[in-house]
Amino acid sequence: MNFLNLPKKPTAFSIHTNTQWLEVNTSTAKILEVIEQHPMGITLTELAPLVIKGFNDNNKSLLKEMIDPLLVNDLVRKYAPEHDKRQRVYVPTRISKRFLFKQLVKAFVNAKN
């Protein structure tokens, strides 16, 4: 997946999907900030230590519940990469102009060489 192709918007969610923003040790807004800083996508394992101090594997389900409102509101989308179908990568739906410009310049430099 490159930075121009977003996974398509989900049309339905599980009945157990959380729709309320949460604040437990961290907040849903903080998670959104971290995901937006990684426009190429970030996995749950990479995200957890950046958001939760003293991360252990027991906190992953709470972290998933905190990401659910972002998915429902279409601020973040998730997909399974080709190489590992069990892994989920979270990408922001809005990509910063700075990142797009940086990728454009990098493409021009690579095309020149």
Which labels suit this protein?
single chain, 113 residues, alpha+beta, Arc Repressor Mutant, subunit A, two-stranded antiparallel sheet, 4 helices, 12% strand, globular
Account of the 3D structure:
The structure is a single chain. By secondary structure, this protein is of the alpha+beta class. It has one domain (23-112): Arc Repressor Mutant, subunit A (Orthogonal Bundle). The protein is 41% helix and 12% strand. It is built from four helices and five strands, in the order ββαβααββα. It has helices spanning 28-36, 44-51, 60-72, 97-112, and strands spanning 23-24, 26-27, 42-43, 76-79, 89-92. The strands form two sheets. Strands 3-5-4 form a three-stranded antiparallel sheet. Strands 1-2 form a two-stranded antiparallel sheet. The longest helix has 16 residues, at 97-112. The two termini are 23 Å apart. The model has no long low-confidence stretch (mean pLDDT 80).
Low-confidence stretches: none
- What's the architecture, going by CATH? Orthogonal Bundle
Measured distance between first and last alpha carbons: 23 Å
Beta content: 5-15%
Order of adjacent strands in the largest pleated sheet: 3-5-4
Order of helix and strand elements from N to C terminus: EEHEHHEEH
What profile does the largest beta sheet have?
3 strands, antiparallel
- State Rg: 15 Å
Summing up helix and strand content along with how strands pair, one would put the structural category as alpha+beta
State the total count of DSSP E strands. 5
